[in-house]
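In response to reviewer comment 3 from the previous cycle, which asked for concrete evidence that the modeling workflow produces usable outputs, we include below a single protein chain processed end to end. The sequence was submitted unchanged, and the resulting structure tokens are shown without manual editing.
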Amino acid sequence: MTQPAPATPVRSRLAGAALAVAALAVGVVGGGWWEARQGSPMQRAAVEQVVHDYILDHPEILPQAVEKLRQNETGAQLGSARAALEQVYPGAVLGNPQGTVTLVEFTDYACTYCRRSVSDVNALIAANPDLRVVVRELPILSPASGNAARMALAAAEQGKYAAFHEAMFTRGRPDPETIAAAAADAGLDLARAERVAALPATGAEITRNLQLARQLGFQGTPSWIAGDVILAGAVGQARLAQAVAAARRPAAG
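The workflow returned the following structure tokens.
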């Protein structure tokens, strides 16, 4: 990932989440915990010592606390943004465009970790015929990233997004030569693609993606969303598959 970035609210509230989960585990939540929090400093200190000791004896609850907090905050974060996130820019989709399960990927063609993730996404698509991968161009590394993103959206207008997406990552870091080569590999009408790439609407899509990423606290690529799961970085095929499976379960149930 270009910049490792767990969301700031998760970091700042980790201690509170861990204490709350630990308190639940030792049975002081409810009347006892609340009364201690409202009582004397001695009462609070006694309860906090119990919680402290429990955490030391059971450190495995900390990842559980973080995950629970992350799930809660993810649901709140995604609530207002989900429709926009899953709305496909015409043609900028991989896998099954009519798929019932959606994986959203924020990507940058200059990102090494995004390049490494291409094979993971291809494997997921092969294993999940109902998977729709909505790709959101997030060119944050260089001006050339922006040029490649615009050309990708122009490829989408010609129905050749997947071909350009694959070719651009295969060609290496974006620059005028590799972008032109990827466009040729994908079979684009280059003059038409250059016109579309320069349109204000194309730039507006990239601006929209930047705004969505900022709203969700993303600071790097690749970043992923499947159902209520947010992932950051090149997390690997297995972790992405878990997220896709979790996103599928509510629909199946």
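The chain has a mean pLDDT of 83. We consider this sufficient to address the reviewer's concern, and the full set will be provided in the supplementary archive.
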